[in-house]
Design goal:
alpha+beta, 6-stranded mixed beta sheet, 3 helices
Length: 160
Amino acid sequence: MKELKIKSTLQVYESLDKLPDEVQELMHQSFKIRDKAYAPYSRFLVGAALVLENGEVVLGNNQENASYPSGLCAERTAIYYAGAHFPDIPIVRMALSAKSLKHQLITPTPPCGACRQAIAEYELKQNKPIEIFFMGELGKVIRSYSLANLLPLIFDKSYL
């Protein structure tokens, strides 16, 4: 047997105001769209703001349904909109924010597994990394240079 070690490198910013101005603005857009999420069941709101290579900003938030599997996360809402409306324009950066209506969320909240897989597909499609910033309602912000840091063993078309 041989052991395989996987290493991820992330950057942690102590607060939103420590980010570059353009990332702060993108994160503020994720806050605005997050607060419009439809989450009557979980009361957990998520906002995603993507910036494309052409400067276009695409927003998405989570949309729940009484039949839970029928809902959609903010990240996939935004990334699929970008894919439908700007299919050949690479995604440069994502800003993600989460907020609970039950308690104050200060822990940076990364994309779920399904969203990581969707982001991975677009990263592979465009053959360029997507920079990802994520946070809770307040507090620290985590930066990943690529989805590969969050999902190092990607399932892709090479397996099919």
